[in-house]
């Protein structure tokens, strides 16, 4: 059995070139797999790798799209769709700090703990995950990268005062479309980006904005996960979101992740809010501008060594507790609750 190669964690704020570095490293190997937090980002990276290597050598696997040629050498995937039965010289996972997300985190934690490239493994993400990586993967080399450009707060602005190349962020499909209609009436056309769009439509909307056909982008927080867009300013139309359980205020790292889409490479960017959303709190502004955030103290984990010998053994293996205090088991996982309910029905169990 070949011993996995070098493990590197490349950490820093947005616009530090982390994803670009990973793509360049992957293209330097004969085979590679990269996991992305977002379908749009996977598609963006897939297009870049295809340009470099040709479509016959590159696979795209997400929850929506599968483009798998015969014997591909490179796999570009969402993190959940990364093939676990394939080995590659290079392996990378982007936005690894999402291991702290209650819904998706256990998948990122699994990749952090077990996914390895034969020659090189690279984890990309925020500096907030640095202490956990040092503790859980002591052999990893940690590299910190500074942001290329400055990110500044510009306060509240009316929609009519937003400059071209602005992205307006809200947190529901209905709000995205309402804002898009408002922009259409007041400022001309806009592109919209949200998860409910088909891959073809979503890609076409991004292309409209990138090619300058429209000056404004209306999006959900999906744009925060690594998309390389020509955005000069990010305006929050809302400072609260529904997280699947309750409506709550955005956390400081969430504001930073989304605001960080403004200003790419050496061009400075700005962020703020629209009139009516209210100002962003001063302590959040300071943290975002200075890129200083509390370190993560735990990440989510689920047992992947499952027993299918019986329903009882499957439930027991699903509910197994982690061995490290840094690893948290998600509460009330929907699939476990559904399995437990089905197992209690004697007509199904028999």
TrEMBL record:
<dbReference type="InterPro" id="IPR050699">
    <property type="entry name" value="RNA-DNA_Helicase"/>
</dbReference>
<dbReference type="InterPro" id="IPR027417">
    <property type="entry name" value="P-loop_NTPase"/>
</dbReference>
<dbReference type="Pfam" id="PF22527">
    <property type="entry name" value="DEXQc_Suv3"/>
</dbReference>
<keyword id="KW-0378">Hydrolase</keyword>
<dbReference type="InterPro" id="IPR055206">
    <property type="entry name" value="DEXQc_SUV3"/>
</dbReference>
<keyword id="KW-0347">Helicase</keyword>
<dbReference type="Pfam" id="PF00271">
    <property type="entry name" value="Helicase_C"/>
</dbReference>
<protein>
    <recommendedName>
        <fullName>Helicase C-terminal domain-containing protein</fullName>
    </recommendedName>
</protein>
<dbReference type="InterPro" id="IPR001650">
    <property type="entry name" value="Helicase_C-like"/>
</dbReference>
<dbReference type="GO" id="GO:0016787">
    <property type="term" value="F:hydrolase activity"/>
</dbReference>
<feature type="domain" description="Helicase C-terminal">
    <location>
        <begin position="154"/>
        <end position="319"/>
    </location>
</feature>
<dbReference type="GO" id="GO:0005524">
    <property type="term" value="F:ATP binding"/>
</dbReference>
<keyword id="KW-0067">ATP-binding</keyword>
<dbReference type="GO" id="GO:0004386">
    <property type="term" value="F:helicase activity"/>
</dbReference>
<keyword id="KW-0547">Nucleotide-binding</keyword>
């Amino acid at each position: 059995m070949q011993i996995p190669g070098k493990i590197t964690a490349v950490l820093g704020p947005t616009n530090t070139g982390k994803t670009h570095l990973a793509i360049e490293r992957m293209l330097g190997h004969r085979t590679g797999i990269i996991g992305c937090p977002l379908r749009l980002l996977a598609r963006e990276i897939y297009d870049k790798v295809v340009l470099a290597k040709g479509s016959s050598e590159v696979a795209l696997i997400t929850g929506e799209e599968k483009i798998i040629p015969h014997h591909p050498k490179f796999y570009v995937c969402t993190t959940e769709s990364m093939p676990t039965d394939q080995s590659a010289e290079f392996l990378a996972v982007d936005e690894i700090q999402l291991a702290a997300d209650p819904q998706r985190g256990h998948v990122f934690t699994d990749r952090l703990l077990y996914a390895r490239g034969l020659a090189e493994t690279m984890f990309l993400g925020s500096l907030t995950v640095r202490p956990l990586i040092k503790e859980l993967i002591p052999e990893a080399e940690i590299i910190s990268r500074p942001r290329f450009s400055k990110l500044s707060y510009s306060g509240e602005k009316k929609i009519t005062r937003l400059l071209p190349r602005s992205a307006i962020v809200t947190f529901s499909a209905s709000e995205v479309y309402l804002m898009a209609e408002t922009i259409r009436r007041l400022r001309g056309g806009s592109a919209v980006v949200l998860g409910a769009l088909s891959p073809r439509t979503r890609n076409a909307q991004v292309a409209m904005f990138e090619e300058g056909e429209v000056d404004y982008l209306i999006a959900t927080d999906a744009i925060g996960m690594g998309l390389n867009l020509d955005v000069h300013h990010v305006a929050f139309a809302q400072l609260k979101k529904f997280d699947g359980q309750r409506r709550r205020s955005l956390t400081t790292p969430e504001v930073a992740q989304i605001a960080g889409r403004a200003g790419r490479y050496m061009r400075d960017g700005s962020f703020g809010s629209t009139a009516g959303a209210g100002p962003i709190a001063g302590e959040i502004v300071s943290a975002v501008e200075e890129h200083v955030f509390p370190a993560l103290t735990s990440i989510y984990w689920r047992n992947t060594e499952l027993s299918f010998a019986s329903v009882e053994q499957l439930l027991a293996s699903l509910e197994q507790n982690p061995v490290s205090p840094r690893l948290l088991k998600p509460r009330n996982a929907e699939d476990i609750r559904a399995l437990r309910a089905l197992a209690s029905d004697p007509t199904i169990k028999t």
